[in-house]
Amino acid sequence: MLGEYRIEGRRASDIAASVERGVAAGALEPGRLLPPMRELALTLGVNPNTVAAAYRTLRERGVIETDGRRGSRVRSKPATTARGSLRVEAPAGVHDASGGNPDPSLLPVLGPALARAARQDAERPGMYGEAPVDEEYARLARAALDADGVPAGPIAVTSGSLDAIERVLAVHLRPGDAVAVEDPGWGSLLDLVPALGLRPVPVAVDDEGPLADAVERALRGGARALIVTDRAQNPTGAALSAPRAAALRRVLAAHPDVLLVEDDHGHGFVDLPLHPLAGATDRWAMVRSVAKAYGPDLRIATLTGDPETVDRVLGRQRLGPGWVSRLLQRTVAELWAGGAVDTAAVARAYALRRDGLVHALGRRGVEAHGRSGMNVWVPVADETGAVARLLGAGWAVAPGARFRMGAGPAVRVTVSGLTLDDIEGLADAIASAAGPAPARSYG
User: For residues 226 and 252, what is the distance between their CA atoms, to the nearest angstrom?
Assistant: First the structure.
């Protein structure tokens, strides 16, 4: 059944690791059938429950799949296949509303800020052994966090939000730990959690953020971490309201050992107020990237949190990249100090398109969600068919499968590239493609 490869191990974690090594080395090819659990348990001299636990871990990590009596086999796609590969390429002549990128016309010009940062570097070049966080960057980042009511905490800088979240999870959790994640939620995060050997636990969301009772169930079920998007949630546009934040803080207060990670990537392009959960548990982290407001290629995110968490992240960072370019940190600080982005104006620009599309769909009897940010989430009866029909009508949208676990089928529409003149035509196309509203459409 396994050819020359021999699965080894006495503990569930060791058995799972042995299978993963075989997959990584190519010794266990995609589609290869694994031994029945009782058979492998007999071969290894362990309890069948141990093998069952190993197979469960492998399924959660996306390494194998189980099909009832047909048994378990290596997945036909590698475990590292990104949800981002579930995309629609927009051919020539098709409007691309699938990418999730900001509107380039709303991003600041970087040249002057880069030049000022370069002049500072010429006067005092950055060298090894210096502090990993630029002093002015830290001062401005902390001031903005203070203004939004985020508890005091040291500042670290990472290469984007996902880098920060990965580092925070890695310094606190171990493979097999459960992590509560939003469903629908950010596709890259839904890839990251199992890639770290962690078990994602879906938590339903609505326009005001994660549902408090869903979070409570996940935490009572053993989730050791919770990841929440504060504003401009991808893909639904959800934003934490004050009442929802209060309800979530009450839930978290009963679970002080849970690791709380907040992603506020909406900072700088969303004008809804922040309602932070930070401080509701003993271990917490708040992440803010500059990607959507200042430019994705800057690869800069601010991380703050409780002192132990930030210290662990900085310590591990020193053993890898060392630091994120202080030249880029100074550039971002120059942009902040110069008021390069008018948050209210940028937020209005996105809201005109987003709200315009949501309202246009509503007039056509189509349910749509988009409280903040640059995306609209549209539940559909047949996701694959809706994507195909929209493509035929000249519109490329993102299939909802990229962003959901147990949530119902939907498509995500990014409004960044739309003009106001596009909205009615796009709404007509979506209404025609969406079909009757599904029974379960959101979380």
Answer: 9
